[in-house]
Design a protein that fits this description.
single chain, 262 residues, alpha/beta
Length: 262
């Protein structure tokens, strides 16, 4: 087993989690794996996805022997976290929408209203409602499911200016709720759009799960932080993710990159 962290997502969304994990564990080699062959997950059946996620992650753990696996995807965490924890002999960290944090922040400001911006599947899933019941039952929550933001995040990583498209997709929803000052970014793709979201709507506090996932990762990491600042990139599709490789190279030297055969 190597002293490394494997971070998994269907596309580029997990890069928002990776960035925070990098800050929390700066001396650990991080390998980013994207299941681009099955992207986007939002159009797939849950049963197919659960089987696929377990298969890809088990193949990657077998190939790379990481010390820890981070499921940097709400869908993957919901459908496969428990199965992977049973199947793998290493810590597996998942991600959920930061509803608890939003509830706490709203109570401090005496404004018990916040938004949940996520994919349609995440907005409607029972685990999302369970989080609301447990941590924000006293709040009014305005939900908006928007799968198109996933594609915008992918475009943004490639250097596309997505501000006009962002405004067209969520501008009306935000305008309909002028008292909404906190919005949970309930998909790990969405924080990659934070710079443009803050430019368009600076009055809103955008909340995501990246820092919380990074803290949990630091708590359960079993390896040794040996000042290996390199990163690696793997994918399952045939198209090489040049934009992802460029993003990773800004965080440290890119050690290797290649397709994972599943």
């Amino acid at each position: 087993m190597s002293d490394s962290i494997l971070i998994f997502d269907s596309g580029v969304g997990g890069l928002s989690i990776l960035t925070e994990v990098r800050k929390a564990l700066p001396g650990v080699h991080i390998r980013y794996l994207m299941d681009s062959e099955m992207f986007p997950y939002g159009i797939r059946a849950d049963g197919l996805l659960a089987e696929r996620i377990v298969s890809v992650c088990k193949a990657a753990v077998s190939s790379f022997s990481p010390s820890m696996l981070v499921l940097a995807c709400n869908t993957a965490s919901t459908l496969a976290l428990s199965q992977l924890r049973e199947a793998l002999e290493l810590p597996v960290v998942g991600v959920v929408p930061a509803i608890r944090v939003a509830g706490e922040q709203c109570r401090r400001t005496d404004n018990l209203c916040f938004g949940l911006l996520a994919t349609p599947a995440t907005v409607s899933r029972s685990y999302t409602q369970a989080l609301i019941d447990d941590f924000a039952s006293d709040c009014r929550i305005e939900r908006f499911g928007c799968s198109e933001l996933v594609d915008l995040a992918e475009q943004h990583i490639a250097g596309v200016d997505t501000r006009a498209a962002l405004h067209g997709l969520i501008g009306n929803w935000l305008a309909q709720h002028p008292d909404m000052r906190h919005v949970v970014l309930g998909c790990t793709h969405f924080p990659l759009l934070r710079d443009e979201l803050e430019l368009l709507w600076p009055e809103i506090h955008w909340i995501d799960s990246g820092a919380a996932v990074a803290r949990q990762s630091a708590r359960v990491f079993r390896g040794i932080a040996d000042e290996d600042t390199s990163l690696s990139c793997n994918w399952t599709g045939t198209q090489e993710p040049e934009a992802v490789k460029r993003f990773l190279s800004q965080l440290g030297p890119l050690k290797d990159a290649g397709r994972l055969l599943v």
